[in-house]
Amino acid sequence: KPPLLEVNQLRTYYPIKGGFMQRTKNYVKAVDNVSFSLNEGETLGLVGESGCGKSTAGRTILRLLQPTSGSITFAGKDITSIKGDSLRKQRRDMQMVFQDPYASLNPNMNVGRIVGEPLQNYERTSEKSVKLEVETLLEKVGLPTSAYDKYPHQFSGGQRQRIGIARALVLRPKLIIADEPVSALDVSVQSQVLNLLKSLQKDFDLTFLFIAHDLSVVKHMSDTIGVMYLGKLVEHADKHSLYKEPLHPYTKALVSAIPEPNPERKKDRIVLTGDVPSPVDPPSGCFFHPRCPHMMEVCKTSEPALKEVRTGHKVACHLYNDGQPSIQINFN
Ligand code: SF4
Ligand code: MG
């Protein structure tokens, strides 16, 4: 079976105003040459610090943004440049759950209208059948059907996110792009919402692109993980090999930052020095080189390509060559 989603050499550049003496570049490479595929029913966790391009990647895949180049294939169909009615039809299959359940729900609409609106837009169906469908979904996301007549402000943050999830499900999409869906919520409700998403994935045959800024949130959700840094995918692997044996020095630092409840297994935290450089004027060579504890001369001038160094495990780093570190390094 072909993957549900295939992204090939995707680039999304934002134009920016020319800087001093027009010497700055006139665009930001928010997503720069990103390729991956996602199988039906699976979850890809896309992880990176804020500004790394992960949200832009998600919005480009949904075609809320027009890619600069590259291709997006959904269920075997090239959707990179579709427009108008075919884009509108395509959007039924791909829905988004947003980070902020406060901002993403219209405060003037009751829950019934919020959740039912996409259905009304797409199908000329009776009010009564929309209501039935909405009530079914409210129960599926763990809300009472009495929520139907209430307004967003009458709910807690976690409940509002459940409303947002019900709305995303009402058209029975195949793919859900969840952009940091729990990062605005109290830690105590985060795992409830994550568990809900997991059980809905089974019930509704969903495929997830799950965007997060740290690896702990996506750990239990994902089948594969992609790590982004300054617009580039620097590592992509199945969950187990990524957490057990991260290859990219940046991923190693992210993995070392995951809280480990068992003190005997506690590893030393790798603390990166320096901030994420500005994407307007990224470093030369490997974008990570100014912060990398293993930086070599070649890293300053040559950009490493993402390549498979073990089965299903891809990394963009000069340390790896044909599955072996090209030089001897003690990573601990
Ligand atoms: Fe570090 Fe060089 Fe690898 Fe970049 S290519 S992550 S600078 S070792
Ligand atoms: Mg974001």
UniProtKB/TrEMBL annotation:
InterPro entries: AAA+_ATPase (IPR003593), ABC_transp_ATP-bind (IPR050319), ABC_transporter-like_ATP-bd (IPR003439), ABC_transporter-like_CS (IPR017871), Oligopep_ABC_C (IPR013563), P-loop_NTPase (IPR027417). GO terms for biological process: peptide transport; transmembrane transport. It comes from the Bacteria. The keyword Magnesium does not apply. The keyword Nucleotide-binding applies. SMART domains: AAA (SM00382). One of its GO terms (molecular function) is ATP hydrolysis activity. PROSITE patterns: ABC_TRANSPORTER_1, ABC_TRANSPORTER_2. Residues 16-255 form the ABC transporter domain. Keywords: ATP-binding, Nucleotide-binding, Transport. Belongs to the ABC transporter superfamily. This is Peptide/nickel transport system ATP-binding protein. It comes from Aureibacillus halotolerans.
